[in-house]
Amino acid sequence: MKILLVDDEYELVSTLAERLSIRGIDADWVTSGEDALAKLAETNYDLAVLDIKMPQLSGLELRKQIQTIQPNMRYIFMTGHGSAEDFFSASSEEGADAYLVKPVNIDDLITKIHESLARQALGTTGPTE
Amino acid sequence: MSLFKALKPEFLNYTAAESGPFKSLFNFRQLWRSRIIILLCVALTPLICLAIFTFLVTKHDTEREIHLRTIRLASNAKRTISFFFEERKAALDFIVRSNSFEQINDSSQLINILQSLKDSIGGFTDLGIIDATGRQLQYVGPYNLQDVNYASEEWFKEVSVKNYYISDIYLGFREVSHVIIAVKHSPPNGLTYVLRATLETKRFNEIISNLNLSGTEDAFLINKQGIIQTPSRSHGKITEKLTLPVPAYSEHTEVLEMPEDHDRKIIGYAYIPETSFIFMLIEKKSELMRPWRSSQEVIIFFIALAILVILAVIYRVATHLVNQVFLADLKRVQTLHEVEQSSKLASIGRLAAGVAHEINNPLAIINEKAGLIKDIFSYKEEYKHDLKIIGLIDSVLASVERCAIITKRLLSFARHLDVSIQMVDIKSVIEDVLGFLIKEAEYRSIMVNLDIEENIPQFETDRGKLQQILLNLVNNAFAAMQDNGHLDIKIRLLEEGFVAVSVKDDGSGIPEADLKRIFEPFFSTKTKTGGTGLGLSITYGLIQELNGKLNVVSKFGVGSEFTIILPLKNTIATKGKNK
């Protein structure tokens, strides 16, 4: 299992990756959509955790581009702009399995990652928070 | 009292602001009063003037008619009585002129003459021939008056001077009223003598009774000394003195008006020529005016009825008109309040968005860093059992979580600046929202009843905002309810293109004092349990954005019902989405 964390906040994304690593999840991280696409070109990932609001390339736009490279990729969205409306918007994205509002609880994130990967294995989808 | 309450206009109970931006345009109490007074003046003044004019004119006409009628009756009576005496005097004149003294002085001839008078004219009692010395030479009649000397009698002196005499009425021995007529005859070459006749007054009284008087009218004769001569209904007996003064002499029939107790008397009188009699016709004015008064009572009744109808109509119309102005002004003030509220919400929203957005990311970093510290301590054996350090880090993480709840709410508050209109199926929106909360409902054994009318069409609104509105309302209901509570969600189609969604809980309800403040930002009764006081502000703002209305009915300790009314067609401009 390999996942990619994408968030423009360096301090956040790097720490989150380290915490996931402590818990045995192999996570790479980048701080922009462009870096993410570059990373995806050289490595296959099972799941991407994307920040919705990022400069240049937003999380939702990045998902569209990744979809063309890796169609089977699963996604978990994160946002600092949390609302029910965001939840419904993000949930409607293809391949989106979860929507989390920052600050993210690490245990919740790990649960969502496992659920998403389990769905991927079963071939089903559905948004949860 | 309850009728007064029912009729009391709504605006009389309303205390308007006397200054400031929400001041009423009018003093409705004063406006209402002045409208009623003006309308009353305009409507009632002509009516009352007409009523007074009619009253005075008809009264004057009636009095004039009474006056003329009295004169007519008195004149007729005067003519008839005058004719009565003229006729009898002429008969006696004819007798003395058509008979010689010798013929008339013959008792058998005089008996024949008396019988002829009784048969032809009637009413004659006796006849007597009196010579120039006053001695009665011949007498035919029921009494023994032969040789009686009348020389010292006033009537004899008067007939000697005036050639005729008509006496007052007297009762005589039999207590039967009589009147004497005497004529003097002085032939050119013969003895001067007087023919004297006594007449019953029965015929005379018949003349007066034939005047067809009403029950309260009184007609009789008096002499010039005021002694009653013929029977009177209510002014004394024959030969008694009349209590009223003798009216002044007039050649013509006259009418007087005199006060009597609480009434007035109309007195018609006429001096009978060549006699000492005065015909009196006395009537009570109130009785004569009775028909006029009856007609006036009917007119006054209808005028009073008309005034009552006018009062009722004016009250109703003035109240309705002022009430319409009042409602319009109330709507204006309400709109001003809403504008102020919206403006306040927008300002707070912009501020909240800026603050929350800036705080959320550093908060997330604090969260991750503190989490990492906790991870490091938790995974290293020497710190794993240091509960103090772990407790401190948990405290930091709990505070971060609290801040996160607040920033989430603040951001939600700011979100309703954008609206995106699309055709929405309300049923699917409700199901989405309930799907979001169903786990909590199951966990807390809250029974959710969903009642959606079948014919509700898809309608134009912002799906995301509607979801958030419903989510907030259902969330609030869940927060207000105990475990095992009941939540009823009803969706109904209203007339004129509206749909109503009501969310009713059996939770704690809202105290009446708080009801007015629940939409104010940061007003919360749950601050100790994490309430931010933004939930209903956001909901209120969102509903306004969707051109909807929010009604609240709540009873403390019983529960609350929030009803959203949304238009089926929406004209809000779409501003695009803001992520």
Helix-strand blueprint:
The complex is a heterodimer of chains A (129) and B (579).
Chain A: E1 2-6, H1 10-22, E2 26-30, H2 33-42, E3 47-51, H3 59-69, E4 74-79, H4 84-91, E5 96-101, H5 106-122
Chain B: H1 2-7, H2 28-98, H3 101-104, H4 107-120, E1 124-131, E2 136-140, H5 154-162, E3 164-170, E4 178-185, E5 193-200, H6 202-209, E6 218-223, E7 254-260, E8 263-271, E9 277-284, H7 285-288, H8 290-379, H9 381-384, H10 387-415, E10 422-424, H11 426-443, E11 447-452, E12 459-461, H12 463-480, E13 486-494, E14 498-505, H13 512-515, H14 535-545, E15 549-555, E16 559-567
Parallel strand pairs in B: 11-13
Antiparallel strand pairs in B: 1-2, 1-5, 3-4, 4-5, 6-9, 7-8, 8-9, 10-12, 13-14, 14-16, 15-16
Helix pairs in contact in B: 2-8, 8-10, 10-14, 11-12, 12-14
Task: Give an overview in words.
The complex is a heterodimer of chains A (129) and B (579). With 129 residues, chain A is α/β, with parallel strands linked by helices. Chain A is built from five helices and five strands, in the order E-H-E-H-E-H-E-H-E-H. Chain A has a five-stranded parallel β-sheet with strand order 2-1-3-4-5, with helices on both faces. In chain A, helix 2 packs parallel to helix 3. Chain A is globular and about 30 Å long. The C terminus of chain A is likely disordered. Chain B has 579 residues and is of the alpha+beta class. Chain B has 14 helices and 16 strands. In chain B, strands 2-1-5-4-3 form a five-stranded antiparallel β-sheet, with helices on both faces. A five-stranded mixed β-sheet of chain B has the order 11-13-14-16-15, covered by helices on one side. The C terminus of chain B is likely disordered. The chains are: A alpha/beta (129), B alpha+beta (579). At the A-B interface, helix 1 and helix 4 of A face helix 8, helix 10 and helix 12 of B.
